[in-house]
Amino acid sequence: xxxxxxxxxxxxxxxxxxxxxxxxxxxxxxxxxxxxxxxxxxxxxxxxxxxxxxxxxxxxxxxxxxxxxxxxxxxxxxxxxxxxxxxxxxxxxxxxxxxxxxxxxxxxxxxxxxxxxxxxxxxxxxxxxxxxxxxxxxxxxxxxxxxxxxxxxxxxxxxxxxxxxxxxxxxxxxxxx
Length: 177
Ligand SMILES: [Cu+2]
Prior knowledge:
By secondary structure, the chain is mainly beta. Helices cover 6% and strands 43% of the residues.
């Protein structure tokens, strides 16, 4: 467990996203399925298949001004109970799962060791809340697609395409239309 001081300590990636934060990120919907061996019990019952791993709103904040730390957001739904243990990508040294909490009036980020996920219930990582903290990221441009792999306690993994861009709220600051 590592705590980072939101304001003083850890840099632009997070300080900036704290300020911008109000709306949910815009991005395309990216769906992915587990790359586990296809089982013959491919039952699609009421809602989603038990094997489903659905990632949507997958966005990596465009790194600011040459900084190599940024944040990622997504929403994740599974067809079965599991626990998200890690995320990784080829374009960064390290990704941590972060949450934010208020401690003595100071907003702090803290690394989470994992996130429990209930079948059929979306887990949302979004500005001002849980996020992927991405360290040592290579230069990225708006519109780039980055593959991020999620690993679960069950041993399953799933890779999703994240779009590089800015969360919705900042949209007006750049180009209109
Ligand atoms: Cu963070």
